Amino acid sequence: MTPLKIGAALMVADLPHFRDWLIADQRDLEVQDFLLPEVLLGDWQDRVATAKAHLDGFEGRLGIHGPFYDLALDTADPEIAPIVARRYVTGVRTAAALGASQIVIHSPYTTWDWFNLGNNPRVGNTPSAADRKIERVHAILREAVAVAEAEGVTLVIENIEDIDPGFRRDLATSFGSDAVKLSIDTGHAHYAHGATGAPPVDYFIADAGPLLAHVHLQDADGFADRHWAPGRGTVNWHAVFAAIAALPQRPHLVLELCEATDIPAAMAYLQGQGLAC
Fold first, then answer.
1. Mind spelling out the 3-state secondary structure of the chain?
2. Which positions ≥6 away from 163 have C-beta within 8 Å?
3. Quick one: pLDDT band at residue 129, thresholds 50, 70, 90?
4. pLDDT for residue 98
5. CB of 222 closer than 8 Å to CB of 194
6. pTM score, two decimals?
7. What is the pLDDT of residues 92-119, one digit of tens each?
8. Which class for 48: exposed (0-12), middle (13-18), buried (19 or more C-beta within 10 A)?
């Protein structure tokens, strides 16, 4: 298998330290500051300007991590839902201002959903619980998706607690838009596999198939969301990279680690395994 070129998810403050590494091979980059409520509610334009200044000369594929704290995509409360919807619109506008082509958002599917959505199947013209959940997500994201389509930004829905990857795939497909695709976080999938009986990580990748546009690469132990450098946990990296290589497209591939200082060790491990370059 040909080694795959990978990049990293970084805060703006870390960009000067990794600028030369990113630009030398024009690696994939995800800027993560914009997941923070205080950033999107504050002067996010200034943060965008600072990032752009650090990235002069960068021509690689660029994305951001969008908001998610307390912003459930399936919010039904009529007072809270407009706030959530507005925050996602701000996230998309931030991505566009930075020149990013992607924004990562979090899956609305919980462990509880997997065990309970089937309790209320469709009956006649009455939608199922699963259908109603998708309807609520559409209500929240309707404007954000429209803005994303206009700005050339793609929302990529990342697995969090997901047990069945097909739920999230069906959600992304339901929009009928090229502006909504999928993201896989390897550590989240490995946690779900070890703790809740979800399929292994490579199954998540294969299930996403042509919809997979983004991958967070991080190692874990199958117990918690560790964000360790690959090689420290128990993710089967050869299976993961083989599944990525089998895709008809190349998703953005970024290391998302607890400590940016672990990036050199992560790269050394993956390069030593013949998986990444």
1. CCCECCEEEECHHHHHHHHHHHHHCCCCEEECHHHCHHHHCCCHHHHHHHHHHHCCCCCCCEEEECCCCCCCCCCCCCCCHHHHHHHHHHHHHHHHHHCCCEEEEECCCCHHHHHHHHHCCCECCECCHHHHHHHHHHHHHHHHHHHHHHHCCEEEEECCCCCCHHHHHHHHHHCCCCCEEEEEEHHHHHHHHHHHCCCCHHHHHHHHHHHEEEEEECECCCCCCCCECCCCCCCCHHHHHHHHHCCCCCCEEEECCCCHHHHHHHHHHHHHCCCEC
2. 109, 111, 114, 192, 196, 197, 198
3. very high
4. 98
5. yes
6. 0.97
7. 999 999 999 999 999 999 999 999 998 8
8. buried
pLDDT at 1: 84
- pLDDT score at 64: 99
For 203, residues 6+ apart whose C-beta sits below 8 A from its C-beta are 165
The first and second tokens of residue 85, run together, are 């919807």
Owner of token pair 């795939």: 169
Distance between CA atoms of residues 98 and 31, nearest Å: 10
- Averaged confidence pLDDT in the chain: 97
